[in-house]
Amino acid sequence: MNWITNYVRPRINSLFSRREMPENLWTKCPECGTMLFHRELSDNLNVCTNCDHHLAITPRRRFEALFDGGIFSEVKVPEPISDPLHFKDQKRYPDRMKAAQKSTGEKEAMLVAEGEIGRTPIVAAAQDFTFMGGSMGMYVGNAIIAAAERAVKLKRPLVLFSAAGGARMQEGILSLMQMPRTTVAVQMLKEAGLPYIVVLTHPTTGGVTASYAMLGDVHIAEPNALICFAGPRVIEQTIREKLPEGFQRAEYLLDHGMLDRVTHRVKMREELITILRMLLNMPPAVAGDLPKPDPETEAKAPEEPAQAAAASTPKT
Amino acid sequence: MTYLEFEKPLAEIEGKAEELRALARQNEEMDVEKEAVALDKKAEAMLRDLYKDLSPWRKCQVARHPTRPHCRDYIKQLFTEFTPLAGDRNFADDHAVMGGLARLDGKPVMVIGHEKGHDTASRIERNFGMARPEGYRKAIRLMDMADRFGLPVVTLIDTPGAYPGKGAEERGQSEAIARSTEKCLQIGVPLVAVVIGEGGSGGAVAFATGDRVAMLEHSVYSVISPEGCASILWKDSEKMREAAEALRLTAQDLKKLGVIDRIIQEPLGGAQRDRKAAVASVGSEIALMLGELEGKKPAELIRARRKKFLDMGSKGLSA
Fold this sequence. Notes:
The structure holds two protein chains of two kinds.
Chain A: H1 3-20, E1 26-28, E2 35-37, H2 38-43, H3 59-66, E3 72-74, H4 93-104, E4 110-117, E5 120-127, H5 138-154, E6 158-164, H6 172-176, H7 178-191, E7 196-205, E8 218-221, E9 227-228, H8 232-239, H9 250-255, E10 261-262, H10 265-279, H11 295-300, H12 303-312
Parallel strand pairs in A: 5-6, 6-7, 7-8, 7-9, 8-10
Antiparallel strand pairs in A: 1-2, 3-4, 4-5
Helix pairs in contact in A: 5-7
Chain B: H1 8-26, H2 33-52, H3 56-63, H4 71-78, E1 80-84, E2 97-104, E3 107-114, H5 120-125, H6 133-148, E4 153-159, H7 166-170, H8 173-186, E5 191-200, H9 201-208, E6 212-216, E7 220-222, H10 226-234, H11 240-247, H12 251-256, E8 262-264, H13 275-293, H14 298-311
Parallel strand pairs in B: 3-4, 4-5, 5-6, 5-7, 6-8
Antiparallel strand pairs in B: 1-2, 2-3
């Protein structure tokens, strides 16, 4: 009608709607469809507050929640030579790498760190599914070897969070050779008498499952994680029949004896502390042994105690 | 003689020579020998030309050739007193994996390998060389026994991959493969592996983590089949030629990468053209490799084997 209805009102509306519902603040749960506010989701370690579906979590975020006070230091991983096969499919491998580095802000698909959980010193390694499907190439192999060597040197247990589609095809046979390489890493830990706990997260498949992920002293999986050697699609094509409900999911593997436990992500930290301290012959962890932050220190350093409190009192 | 697709022109010439000779047998006055010999010569030249520089995809086809000698043929020709040992003591005996005690040049060894089968019935019985967890667990048991009695282990690798089946997954295919690789790295006796056909992914690594790894000239060893790789990365399983190229799965590339130690020459036109000779050359290479490892102490073997794999891949293709 006039410039107010035609121009000004849509402008105002769009301003408001943009301010109210910026897209990146909300995540839709892929399982139940609930819209989850980013803050709430992040506080719950990327587990849907409505249906308990476990969404992917980056290694860095996981470590912030895992280690006491969110404090950890990264273990340096020896750099492998890049693009050893000069691999090119529809894209060049270095280009795929650059794209993955840009979208994740990480250098590669595994992060290794040392720190304390419940005042228990550990080394931890976590695979990043968002980085080229967490695929295992030379770098991931080097990371696991570095983690094992560091654990042996410091006489600490290793906790490894696996998440990968399998081997990194762009490194061809060298990705396959990470199966024996990482197995040697696990042997180093066993010979040093150090616990090796694997936390299998969604998805852990292929050569990763058929090497370090299945060689732990204790296997814990996150609920409903897909864990397998051959994926369900490949199997359906081979045997030409529908697979049963829940096939190759964590609970199914637990029933078939491949796992020790299936544990909710927010309870994982506490469980790891409990198991590790028993394996290491240490006294039980003192629950809530961190002094409550008094308002003064909280005012000075709001970040750290808040995180520590969030991490030590997991929600159920 | 089974011809591969790229051998079609060769099939024509060899077929003609055969026809001529058949004709001559029926009709004694005909003298075709001269022409037949000329055709033979032409065929040989063509064969030499075809196999001079086989593309990776063609090598895959040769490696999967139905009449290529399989594990069973090697065991029959190279070993004496072969005594198959069966079962994983848990669930079943996997016929995709052959294993047992045998003598090589009179000396006792433990031999383990994938067997694909040679006709429809045996292929089904052997599950086309695709092992289930029981196969790997049988191998673990045999490697363990070899270790306790100080017998060297010889493995023959020829598998499209571990079997992707429902039961196999339920019984822990990945765990079985992981443990088998682990066992390879733990035994204090020499472990010599030869890829005689297809080295398919984890199913191959589980037996091939050895002190010495050799490959037949036209065998392949890869993290994934070219078809599988093509359908994932190219979203088109028809791009297997490109995928085979990119994956560097030939014995020649793997030698350059330092993944294998030796390439064993095949008779002209591939192992299937002169099975006996191919098997014999594998036999002498196995003897050579075992000779290199003779007299080494268990701890020394284990240390060197681990180092070999830890160092692997550090140099890339330039190595």
